[in-house]
Design goal:
7 helices; 6-stranded antiparallel β-sheet; single chain; 22% strand; alpha+beta
Length: 301
């Protein structure tokens, strides 16, 4: 699936995802690095997971099989919004109305972040595309990336994020931390306050993930903050991977992985090599931070 062939749907979906992400952010308790705001890959699409509300909870899921936005309340009530060609303004109005019908009061900052043109949601009649097949294929890309990132995550016993989807930049990510603080991030993301990035990057880290950009069909990426000297010259990368000086991160096009003889092994090789670029050059305490996820298997027999 070439990004160029579904870019209108991608950009519309990005804004729909921001609306739902902001709903979760309005109710979930604050966590370090904004981890309370993210979405998660589910067996049907992308979900908020359970969000606390009053004496119960609710969740919201983008179902890319039946192409519905499902909002479920713990009292048993639910509402749906059709995922179909419609403007951001229409989707926003329908989603907020559905929440109101479930008695979930949710004031949000109703403009997008981390995009160049931040049209308020209620006024955005520009973005109005939804290709069902493209949305389904994007979710399938996320499923494959999520599988391998979850396995990669299991080898790290230090502080590590969940494998989660950041709606600001529309990327699936997993982030490992050395345990040391990082210098304040300079910010600079479009339509996003610098203090948001300062919190997000408050610890020394190595991050990797996938987003629908950077390659013909999207790309896997990896970066370090702060970037240690020597990070950009890491050997042992799979064929097709490279360091982008423009983005200050490593890239591996999705199509390279998809066409490899062993896609999982190719992606794992990329994740491990780029992590080692951060950990070795940054002098992380790897003995304390890494372990074998099979270390207890002998006790299960």
């Amino acid at each position: 699936m070439r990004v160029a062939d579904w870019i209108d749907t991608r950009d519309t979906l990005h804004l729909w995802l921001q609306i739902v992400g902001k709903v979760r952010m309005a109710h979930a308790p604050m966590l370090n690095h904004w981890w309370q705001t993210t979405l998660y890959v589910s067996p049907r699409g992308l979900t908020t997971s359970a969000v606390p509300y009053a004496d119960g909870s609710f969740d919201i899921e983008f179902d890319f099989i039946e192409h519905l936005l499902r909002i479920r309340h713990s009292d048993g009530r639910q509402r749906t919004v059709a995922l179909e060609p419609k403007s951001v303004a229409e989707f926003y109005g329908q989603t907020m109305a559905a929440l109101d019908e479930l008695d979930i009061e949710t004031p949000i900052h109703a403009s997008p972040n981390e995009v160049q043109e931040a049209i308020p949601f209620a006024e955005d009649h520009v973005h109005a595309s939804y290709d069902r097949a493209a949305a389904h294929s994007f979710w399938r890309q996320l499923l494959q990336a999520d599988r391998v990132l979850e396995e990669f995550r299991s080898h790290f016993v230090g502080k590590v994020s969940p494998v989660h989807f950041f709606w600001g930049a529309m990327d699936l990510a997993c982030t490992r931390f050395s345990g040391r603080p990082a210098p304040p991030h300079p910010g600079g993301a479009p339509n996003c306050p610098d203090w948001v990035m300062v919190e997000g990057y408050s610890g020394e880290l190595s991050s990797a993930g996938f987003w629908p950009g950077g390659g013909e069909e999207g790309a896997f990426y990896a970066y370090a903050y702060p970037e240690p000297a020597g990070f950009a010259e890491q050997p042992g990368l799979p064929e097709g991977a490279f360091y982008s000086h423009e983005l200050s991160e490593y890239l591996l096009p999705y199509e390279v992985v998809a066409e490899a003889a062993d896609p999982d092994a190719t992606l794992t090789e990329f994740l491990q090599a780029t992590y080692e670029a951060a950990a070795v050059h940054g002098r992380w305490d790897r003995a304390a931070l890494e372990d074998d996820p099979s270390r207890l298997d002998h006790l299960k027999q």
